[in-house]
């Protein structure tokens, strides 16, 4: 049985307690003197590249997308967010890649690999 939002927040369960436990100050509190913009810009470049690659592979951005963020210390963070359909598309792409790599190894050849820029190196040099 699906309960509405109002019913879920009516105080009859421990929703608030679960939410409070899940909130870690290190995950959301900004620290004085930390340049979050530099980390976010590096994460944004990486997220843009990943979103472009996903689109090139036929994954609809409305089903799976990379989102730029920063960690508590300003480090670049990229999150993948999406619906089940998007995750299944990614699973299919990863399975195809794994199969191709296995086939290449079986034939004695080296598989080509993509070399993406290291976002931490980009962040550190900014």
Query: Mean of the pLDDT scores?
Result: 75
**Could you name the ranges where pLDDT drops below 50 across 5 or more consecutive residues?**
1-11
**β-sheet strand percentage:** 5-15%
Give the biggest sheet: 2 strands, antiparallel
Order of helices and strands: HHHHEEHH
Cα shape: elongated
How many helical elements? Answer: 6
**C-alpha Rg, in Å?**
20 Å
Q: Helix proportion of residues, in percent? A: 40-55%
**Strand order in the sheet with the most strands:** 1-2
Distance between the termini: 52 Å
Quantity of strands, as a count:
2
The structure class reads: mainly alpha
Verbal overview:
By secondary structure, this protein is mainly alpha-helical. Helix content is 53%, strand content 11%. A two-stranded antiparallel ribbon has the order 1-2. Strand 1 and strand 2 (76-82) form a beta hairpin. The N and C termini lie far apart (52 Å). The chain contains six helices and two strands, in the order ααααββαα.
């Amino acid at each position: 049985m699906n309960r509405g939002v109002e019913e879920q927040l009516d105080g009859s369960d421990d929703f608030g307690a679960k939410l409070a436990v899940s909130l870690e100050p290190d995950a959301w509190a900004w620290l004085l003197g930390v340049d979050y913009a530099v980390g976010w810009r590096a994460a944004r470049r990486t997220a843009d590249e990943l979103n472009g690659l996903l689109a090139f592979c036929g994954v609809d951005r409305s089903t799976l997308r990379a989102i730029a963020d920063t960690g508590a210390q300003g480090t670049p963070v990229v999150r993948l967010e999406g619906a089940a359909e998007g995750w299944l598309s990614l699973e299919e792409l990863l399975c195809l890649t794994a199969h191709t790599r296995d086939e290449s190894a079986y034939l004695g050849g080296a598989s080509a690999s993509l070399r993406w820029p290291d976002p931490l190196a980009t962040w550190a040099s900014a």
